[in-house]
Amino acid sequence: xxxxxxxxxxxxxxxxxxxxxxxxxxxxxxxxxxxxxxxxxxxxxxxxxxxxxxxxxxxxxxxxxxxxxxxxxxxxxxxxxxxxxxxxxxxxxxxxxxxxxxxxxxxxxxxxxxxxxxxxxxxxxxxxxxxxxxxxxxxxxxxxxxxxxxxxxxxxxxxxxxxxxxxxxxxxxxxxxxxxxxxxxxxxxxxxxxxxxxxxxxxxxxxxxxxxxxxxxxxxxxxxxxxxxxxxxxxxxxxxxxxxxxxxxxxxxxxxxxxxxxxxxxxxxxxxxxxxxxxxxxxxxxxxxxxxxxxxx
Amino acid sequence: xxxxxxxxxxxxxxxxxxxxxxxxxxxxxxxxxxxxxxxxxxxxxxxxxxxxxxxxxxxxxxxxxxxxxxxxxxxxxxxxxxxxxxxxxxxxxxxxxxxxxxxxxxxxxxxxxxxxxxxxxxxxxxxxxxxxxxxxxxxxxxxxxxxxxxxxxxxxxxxxxxxxxxxxxxxxxxxxxxxxxxxxxxxxxxxxxxxxxxxxxxxxxxxxxxxxxxxxxxxxxxxxxxxxxxxxxxxxxxxxxxxxxxxxxxxxxxxxxxxxxxxxxxxxxxxxxxxxxxxxxxxxxxxxxxxxxxxxxxxxxxxxxxxxxxxxxxxxxxxxxxxxxxxxxxxxxxxxxxxxxxxxxxxxxxxxxxxxxxxxxxxxxxxxxxxxxxxxxxxxxxxxxxxxxxxxxxxxxxxxxxxxxxxxxxxxxxxxxxxxxxxxxxxxxxxxxxxxxxxxxxxxxxxxxxxxxxxxxxxxxxxxxxxxxxxxxxxxxxxxxxxxxxxxxxxxxxxxxxxxxxxxxxxxxxxxxxxxxxxxxxxxxxxxxxxxxxxxxxxxxxxxxxxxxxxxxxxxx
Lengths: 297, 557
Known about the structure:
Order of helices and strands of chain B: HHEEHHHHHHHEEHHHHEHHHHHHHHHHH
Structural class of chain B: mainly alpha
Number of helices of chain A: 10
Distance between the termini of chain A: 53 Å
Shape of chain B: globular
Largest sheet of chain A: 6 strands, mixed
Structural class of chain A: alpha/beta
Helix content of chain A: 25-40%
Order of helices and strands of chain A: EEEEHEEHEHHHEHEHEEHEHEEEH
Number of domains of chain B: 2
Oligomer: heterodimer
Helix content of chain B: 55-70%
Number of strands of chain A: 15
Radius of gyration of chain A: 22 Å
Strand order of the largest sheet of chain A: 7-8-9-4-10-11
Radius of gyration of chain B: 27 Å
Strand content of chain A: 25-35%
């Protein structure tokens, strides 16, 4: 079979009541439902919330215990290949073949993905350029640092020009410059494709996401556009200075989203419906404030 | 932390991690089955311990010593492959890096791993003791159970033998060159000499400290008893230990009552000495042990790094600066230059289009490249020599001797089949690709077949040319069977060790020792008459189905 990768006019991913149980009674994911259209979805949640489990299910690596996932109307458990043909996946943890160079490793994965060799090679060169690894492309991967390996992972996820790109904690190990580069790259991935960015780093989502889904304890807490999330905490973010010895008491009473040490005490930023102190200033909210507010017990 | 406490907890954590795996329960089940096989009934086609034409009555004394000798011999071999992963596990899981940052010394660590290996193997020895009691009752030749007579030989003979195995496993893991598959082969080849060599040299008479396997610790007493009971000269008596099959009929050995061992101080000292040697090997392993320093480990694990590192010292300095942000200053590549962010294209949209060109051939070539990439240049030279030997040596020699060696040489290449994705953590990348079962698995198998055929094709074609079609068919079945076994073992275990052990055993017993029904290559016409070709053809199909089933499980999530 040969030819250009064919795409549906408008891609859609539907997650219907998906649950995943490990062992007898540990539910990593409970009744998760969400419909995704083209755009960048930021999946935010604390550690152990079930993000990676959901990512693995969507990447056809893990089968859900119940529920179903439809890619353009087709069940990805019953028929995984239509999705796999257009899937780019960067797992949270992945390995490499240490004796291969970045170039050789990507050539191998291009063959595994069923890409035509000649055009794949050209694309690999460009991708290595994109992730800033061209100069070290012939070095064995065993000598790569964690950040460099992560960039190889990003390149492999883009090999087949994916319609569904799933990136699980992609910026871990990247230095600030590479993190910015990756965020810009996500911003470039516009058009008819769905990008799912799973992370607990709010600033990564802030930069790229067109929509945000919050997940906690395996359940979907909510899903909205970043602007909607910000509107939900409009007028609820406060900042004031407290004496250092009162910080613990403030932490017990309020959801603190930031602290800064000052000469006369600690400047505290909280999310609350009412002003916490007479001298508290109201501030414009950030996504981090909205995230903390949404996940408040 | 006190050294003893640190040692205890190192051993405890490692032991619990291993025995809580399902595979260990299976191992204990196999141990009980081994105890069953070790004591064949009176009219069996095989025997495990034979003194001349006699064997001891299955009383506790004989049962204890028989099981101890069998355990010492077989567990010292198989146990090595079972426990040779203690350091590797810490390396793979990253726990090693944490341990390396603690005050734990290298010798404490290697000794702790030895203790853990010992604990695992001692658990198996204890299971053998339970199996021995059960088997004595099952055979029913003497129903009086003397627990001490059963347990003592296991403790005195089998435990020191596995202490050596435990120590060698730690030493092999600490030595970069022996850490992987090469170490597995080296141990298999040298095991007999290392464990029973001193006994062979002394014609199985106890001298010095005997051997690690403890044969001369027990067998002379048995031989003396048989000699005096049946009036046969000691010098004329033979001795056999292991699974010895009779080609026709059954063994009907005369039995005698053996009173058991008298454990003299001399014998006990010998066994203590072997235990201490085993422990010393683990202590010696602390010297080459890299303490999970990735730089030292890297030079060992990827031999190709060496020459490349030395080529461009100037580039190295530039790259170190560029990599500083990544937290490492690493060795240079051959074209290492300063990394320039400005070279990256501005947009993903500007990338060349990805075109699908899905063929089995392209996948096969990719798998072949990947398989051959790990092989050093010397490997290709030897492989070429063996391939030429298959073409140009006299056919009987090529078929009987060169072909068996040609088909053991790619052992490490085959053993990577099916388990590479799991071993290197690339499963999520590979199995999220389309048609991994329909394309990648057949390509993997075909890559193994191509290598097998390429290296032995001289014999195959010459057999066809001479009209010996049954032998040519046996050759073909062998060429398909080997990668099938490797693939099935790799897919189901996620590693190459099971294949390496199984294949080496089969290769040694079959083609090398000319056991007709296990000769999967067809080195002689006797093999063809024994029906090995049909048997291995069926086995090949079953193994391929197993491999497909195993991979289907993974790709289906």
